[in-house]
């Protein structure tokens, strides 16, 4: 958004998005905030710079053009681009702040009102380029409450948890179409004592956060995790850091699968080239572990239609090289429609077919006879959606047990699902989560 404010830097947005699409990326995570700083979106509480808002409009419109969807973060825990520090300064300056502590962002009633007003303005914003309100725009993949929240003044985590529950419910009251996550780094707190040993070091349990507890509310659709071993450890060898990365990912994938029953996204990870003795091969080793675990070694499990992770296991038929996973439905959406079942497909498959419709393709996912699929508790037998033209391969249903369905798929295609004008009658959205092709691309 920041680069889109001025004419001389605006072309960078298109160039970055086009490069990302060419690489096969399907989701881009970026900021939908800049509070009280240079090129501020929110200049003071409730006062917005229309030029900067139009820059955000432009980013969303450009993402639509290249078939990339956006995950938009709403505030920063850090000082960069204002963050929670700016909200506290505003309240303190106006004489309504309870405390100069940055953590008062989470418990000060006045600041909560500031933030709610901001969120409502963003979600109900009508894009000046596309004419679509943000809350109705399928280009937006989902919302992130806050980037890397920490509340060190309350180790119990109660303060942050109360804020998450209130703000996530508020967002869902305005926008029940998009996915929502917290924006966590993934640290375990006192409420998860058995997992504290998985933290990078002892200090992580004192950050006032808890991956499991914070991700558990029904208003949170998927969990998020970051991985920065070089920032989290004072002294540890490269070998030790790489072992931590594997253990860290396994523990969160397992918690998403067995405890939360929700998808887990690794939304940020990196190894700094500023480290003493850094060599690019070290980063290559780090990235290989991350992508191998996401793409090959972790289980593919879908609980009530939500993809937890992707890869190959002994429960899943072998997939082609760049595997993807498919989840049908979302807890934030209406139940998917029922319809007729296919009659000529193998026992373990569903069919995805496409027909032309005013420049779009109608994709029909049809369940096999006598097979009951569920998405968030709702039976699925037939779903029709309009999408951009793309090539689709058969989707394999590998297990059906009550309300739990397991899906895998070969490369579904890179085009994002967007409703055609006549698709308003559809009763749900079909989400393709391209986890293997996903990593964070931040456009500042």
TrEMBL record:
Q: List the SUPFAM superfamilies.
A: (Trans)glycosidases
Its Enzyme Commission number(s) read 3.2.1.78
Task: State the family named in the UniProt similarity comment for this chain.
Answer: Belongs to the glycosyl hydrolase 5 (cellulase A) family.
Q: What is this protein called?
A: mannan endo-1,4-beta-mannosidase
Gene3D superfamilies given for it? Answer: Glycosidases
Enzyme category, top tier: hydrolase
For this UniProt entry, which segments traverse the membrane?
none
A Pfam family that the UniProt record links to this protein: GH5_mannosidase
Keywords, sorted A to Z: Glycosidase, Hydrolase
Annotated Glycoside hydrolase family domain residues = 9-297
GO BP annotations listed = polysaccharide catabolic process
Catalysed conversion reaction: Random hydrolysis of (1->4)-beta-D-mannosidic linkages in mannans, galactomannans and glucomannans
Supply the InterPro entries for this chain.
Answer: GH, Glyco_hydro_5, MAN-like
Q: Which domain of life is it from?
A: Eukaryota
The UniProt GO MF terms for this protein read: mannan endo-1,4-beta-mannosidase activity
Q: Which organism is it from?
A: Artemisia annua (Sweet wormwood)
